[in-house]
Structures are given as C-alpha cells and as structure tokens.
C-alpha cells in the first residue's frame, strides 16, 4: 500500500476548473487501480501557513549557527516538521496547478520553500554539493495553462517558458526524486475553437497516467 500526497493549488471558485478536472481524471483512474492506497490531499491555495518571513529566516540562521530558538521559533519549527514528516513519509507525490505568470502558484512555491530543508530532504556532502535524501519515490505534475508550452508546433523553444514545471522537476531532483512525469492541459486560450478537443485529449492522458503511476 502506497501513501500518495497530493499538493493541489487552485482557489475554489464557482467557475469550473480545468486543473480540477485534470486532477479528477488522474486520481479517479489511480484509485480504481490502487483502491487500498492512502491519499492525502492539501489544497494549499486554501491553506498554506508557511512563509519565508522574519521568524522563518531567523530559524534558518540559528540552525546554521546551532544556536537556541525562542519559544515562537520552536513552535513554528515544530509545525513545519509535521508537514516535512508527511512529505518525507509519502511514497508518491501529485502536484496539480494552473500556470500563473509562467510559474506555479505562489502557494506552491511556499510549499517547496517549506519542504526544502537541509538535513531533512537533502544534505550537503563534504565537497559542499547538495545530495537528495528521498529515495524510491515518484512524482507527477498536472498543470493547466492557457498557452501552449509542450506541444507548440510553431515556437519550438516554447517549453523553456514553462518555468514552473522546470522548477518543480529541479527541486524534486535536488531532494532525490528523479522519477518525474507530467501531464499538461494546455493551449485552450491560444486555440479556443478547439478547447473541448484539447481538454478531452489531456483528460485521457491524465487517466492513462493515473493507471500507470
Ligand atoms: C493570474 C493568472 C495568470 C496566468 N498566467 C498564465 C501564463 O503565464 N501562461 C499561460 O499560458 N496561462 C496563464 N494563465 C491562464 C491559466 O493558466 C489557464 O486559464 C488555466 O487553464 C486555468 O486553469 P483553471 O481552469 O483550472 O482555472 C493565467 C491565469 C491567471 C488567472
């Protein structure tokens, strides 16, 4: 039985969401194939308490200097550790988000800020190089975007503008998670006449990915 951690970043609104549909197609197919797996879902657009503020940076500096934390710093550190432990103990990660300004939503960046912790998810070797500490895990990125970045027949280098997917893949790699795949629902704003076809195609890919994940 695997533990699947879903980091979902989309504010819930009355309007339908292609991110949500993409995720639903993926997870329904995944759970049909793996009915006994544990699925933990966080909508971090609704709740993401961690930010790199004065307190968080003070903890960072004190940990480096190995000096004592204040009671407030201990409290924040302990609540961060709960999120970190959850991440470390999951077997599979699902990141689902719309593209915002060529990147992942800010809350997802804050989630990454929270789990990137030397001594927990990676460490530095004696040459000062970072080494990932998570092993045998896999991740999938499900992303919806108005433009076309991964299947653009006109602009061959479009992929380099999807900074969020590259970032996510790089950060997971830094933590040792190299089994990484992605499904994109993309190009609906660029080619609105074909929205239904584009989405149906993406949802079918998400279903297939759910069976294989
Ligand atoms: C604030 C904001 C920024 C966006 N930035 C981009 C962008 O940089 N590139 C892009 O292709 N689409 C961008 N979009 C469009 C969304 O990524 C696209 O509409 C996506 O399908 C929305 O997913 P949803 O249906 O789940 O809300 C942006 C949308 C919003 C609201």
Automatic annotation (TrEMBL):
Which positions fall inside the Flavodoxin-like fold domain?
2-205
Q: Write out the residues that bind FMN.
A: 99-102, 144-147
- Which Pfam families does the entry link to? Flavodoxin_2
- The UniProt transmembrane annotation reads none
Q: How does it assemble?
A: Homodimer.
**Cytoplasm among the record's keywords?**
no
This protein's encoding gene:
azoR
Protein function = Quinone reductase that provides resistance to thiol-specific stress caused by electrophilic quinones. Also exhibits azoreductase activity. Catalyzes the reductive cleavage of the azo bond in aromatic azo compounds to the corresponding amines.
Query: This protein's superkingdom?
Result: Bacteria
| Source organism | Companilactobacillus zhachilii
Can you say what this protein is called? Answer: FMN dependent NADH:quinone oxidoreductase
Family of the protein in this entry: Belongs to the azoreductase type 1 family.
Q: Which reaction does it catalyse?
A: N,N-dimethyl-1,4-phenylenediamine + anthranilate + 2 NAD(+) = 2-(4-dimethylaminophenyl)diazenylbenzoate + 2 NADH + 2 H(+); 2 a quinone + NADH + H(+) = 2 a 1,4-benzosemiquinone + NAD(+)
Note the HAMAP family from the entry: Azoreductase_type1 (MF_01216)
Keyword check for Cell membrane: no
| Key words of the record | Flavoprotein, FMN, NAD, Oxidoreductase
Q: A Gene Ontology molecular-function term?
A: FMN binding
State its Enzyme Commission number(s). 1.6.5.-, 1.7.1.17
Task: Report the co-factor binding details.
Answer: Binds 1 FMN per subunit.
Q: Which cofactor does it need?
A: FMN
């Amino acid at each position: 039985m695997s533990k699947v951690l879903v980091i979902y970043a989309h504010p819930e609104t009355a309007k339908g969401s292609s991110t949500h549909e993409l995720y639903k197609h993926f997870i329904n197919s995944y759970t049909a194939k793996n009915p006994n797996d544990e699925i933990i879902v966080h909508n971090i657009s609704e709740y993401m308490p961690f930010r790199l503020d004065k307190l968080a940076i003070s903890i960072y500096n004190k940990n480096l200097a190995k000096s004592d934390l204040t009671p407030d710093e201990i409290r924040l550190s302990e609540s961060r550790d709960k999120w970190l432990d959850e991440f470390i103990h999951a077997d599979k990660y699902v990141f689902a988000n719309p593209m915002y300004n060529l990147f992942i939503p800010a809350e997802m960046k804050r989630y990454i800020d929270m789990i990137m912790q030397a001594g927990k998810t990676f460490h530095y070797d004696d040459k000062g190089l970072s080494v990932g500490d998570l092993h045998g895990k896999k991740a999938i990125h499900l992303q919806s975007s108005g433009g076309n970045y991964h299947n653009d027949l006109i602009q061959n280098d479009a992929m380099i503008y999807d900074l969020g997917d590259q970032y996510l893949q790089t950060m997971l790699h830094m933590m040792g998670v190299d089994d990484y795949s992605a499904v994109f629902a993309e190009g609906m704003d660029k080619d609105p006449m074909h929205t239904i076809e584009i989405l149906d195609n993406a949802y079918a890919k998400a279903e297939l990915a759910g069976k294989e994940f």
